[in-house]
Amino acid sequence: MNVVKIKKAIFSKTLLRGFISVAGLILLWEVGRRLKLPGLAAVPAPSEVYQSISASISQPKFWDHWISSFSRVISGFIAAQLVGIPLGLMMAMSRTFHATTFPILEIMRPIPPLAWVPASIIFWPTTELSIAFVIFLGAFFTVVINVIGSARNIDVRYIRAAHSLGSRPWDIFWRIILPAVLPGIFIGMAVGMGITWEVVVAAEMIAGKSGLGYLTWSSYVGGNYPQIIIGMISIGIAGYISSSLIRLLGHYVTPWQRTQ
Amino acid sequence: MSSAIGHSGGGRISIRNVTKIYDPDGAKVLAVDNCSLEIEAGEFCVLVGPSGCGKTTLLNALAGFHSITSGTIELDGRAVCTATHTEPPSAERIVVFQNGALFPWYTVLENITYGPEVQGRSRREAREQALDVLAELGLSPIADRYPGEISSGMKRRVEIARALINDPKVLLLDEPFRAMDALTKGVVQEFLLRALDKVRKSVLFITHDLEEALFLGDRVVIMTTRPAQVKKTILVDFPRPRTFKVRSSARYLELKAQVFDAVHEEARKAFDAGEREMA
Q1: What is the pLDDT of residue A43?
Q2: For B89, which of A163, A179, A259 is closest by C-beta distance?
Q3: Residues A134 and A113 sit within 8 Å (Cβ to Cβ)
Q4: ipTM score
Q5: Which end of chain A is more exposed for a tag (fewer CB within 10 A), N or C?
Q6: Average pLDDT over chain B, rounded to whole?
């Protein structure tokens, strides 16, 4: 990217407006807190949060919380892809398989992942595994539903054209069906990643001994109010980083999507 | 003349007494009724007729996409579709579809190499041949583009190239230039003619555009309204290679009048039948 473009991006009106709105929110919050407006009286002011940032992030434990949340999210998320994508493809391709598995899926799907926490703790030998399982569930259903949807929507013209060009069933799967569902898989991943962060934080608050959710909750219990805000902001940033990574990966794996 | 596009010859099509009855839910619909048609090897045959008259049914049966109720379709004396047996689709009978079916996830070059690769050619060999074909047809500049990045006219050209590289015996085109503006259409029609001047192929071409039929075809076959039968055959005797000038010749106008008369009569019947069905 050239310098002019970067300058344009930095000084663009859109970015300026975004900056003003965020700065305005922080200012309102600060002023509200100083005037002791109802509701804001007990909430730490941005200036207090700012002062305690260095104290928080200089502790190695702070980064341990980041690492444990991230590793839970990544392991649960990857497991959900590994199970969900092949399952979704099989369900889309075989009517019999769909008919036998779909009802189970549809009964399980409306159960919020957090409702699984107690059963999961009883079932799995360690708390760590039960949290990972709940995260897995959070992403799993979204992945399966998206894969089925996009595999069913493949235009029959592509399949026919591929047959007409001499494809074997193997080619139809690897060269037609799989690339055709990839964009759908990435949509499922992006949505699933969002759910995953919601779930990990809540699960850590209920049952965790570490992680950003645990950090936020224990700050509340320990009365370190500025650190509650730091925990929340950390979760926001962590979620943003993960969804950016998914977008980046999608960009790289499905380059043709940019041309559509 | 040597060409990167192979030319194995053959491609004689015999459609004999073909009948197709669709029976989706008990309501039998006779789509094609005892239809017979011979296409010589290397002949460009255009089917015209009212919408929904069963032209596509014939083409799909020949392509191997569905069965027929009775009759036979032969390719070079071999039965490819009968009442009891439908040979699955293969690269000797390649279809170019109405709305285009380039794979959006492959570049132009990868679309072209698709056929040779799935038929067992090495990636390198397929790539070399594809580059030659693209060069021969003037498509080299867009080799690394995705279909989403090129115009509809370009897409059609690439799709024709993707079919031709496989050296099919028959090219099946189902209203391939429909919904194109007149200028683009003219360019793509000439592209198809130039490509076929290099390697003659048997072509079965379906269209509603009568001018297109006359400009491209060796023979224009006018179908009746459903159930499809051959109403009239008009030989188009302009010499090849043809250019756009054909369209302003006196003979062209004469043939056009004949085709219009025949088609209009059928369109009228189809319309009246439609009115009756509605009533």
Answers
A1: 83
A2: A163
A3: yes
A4: 0.87
A5: N
A6: 89
**What pLDDT band is residue B1 in, cutting at 50, 70 and 90?**
very low
pLDDT of residue B278: 60
Select from A69, A71, A140, A85 the least CA-distant residue to A111: A140
Say how many domains are in chain A.
2
pLDDT tens per residue across span B142-161: 999 999 999 999 999 999 99
Mutate to test the interface with B, among A165, A186, A252 (most CBs of B within 10 A): A165
Do A64 and A141 share a structural domain? yes
Domain extent for A255: 47-259
Evaluate if residue B224 carries a pLDDT over 90. no
B101 and A180 in contact by Cβ < 8 A? no
* Minimum Cα–Cα distance from A171: chain B residue: B118
For residue B13, what are the CA distances in angstroms to A38, A97, B37, B193, B218?
Answer: 86, 41, 8, 20, 15
Smallest CA–CA distance, residue B33 to chain A, in Å, is 25
Cβ(B90)–Cβ(B64) below 8 Å: yes
| A22 and A141 together in one domain | no
CB A151 within 8 A of CB A172: no
For residue A10, the one-letter residue type is: I
Determine the topology of domain B13-101+177-278 in CATH. Answer: Rossmann fold (3.40.50)
Model's pTM, two decimal places? Answer: 0.83
User: Looking at CA atoms only, how far is residue A195 from chain B in angstroms?
Assistant: 29
Mean pLDDT of B247-255: 90
pLDDT value at residue A38? 82
CATH (domain of A114): 1.10.3720.10
- Same domain for A119 and A156, yes or no, is yes
Do A37 and A53 fall into the same domain? Answer: no
| Residue A163 and residue A222 share a domain | yes
The C-alpha atoms of residue B48 and residue B210 are separated, in whole angstroms, by 7
Contact B65 A160 (CB under 8 A): yes
Q: A169 CB near a chain B CB, below 8 Å?
A: no
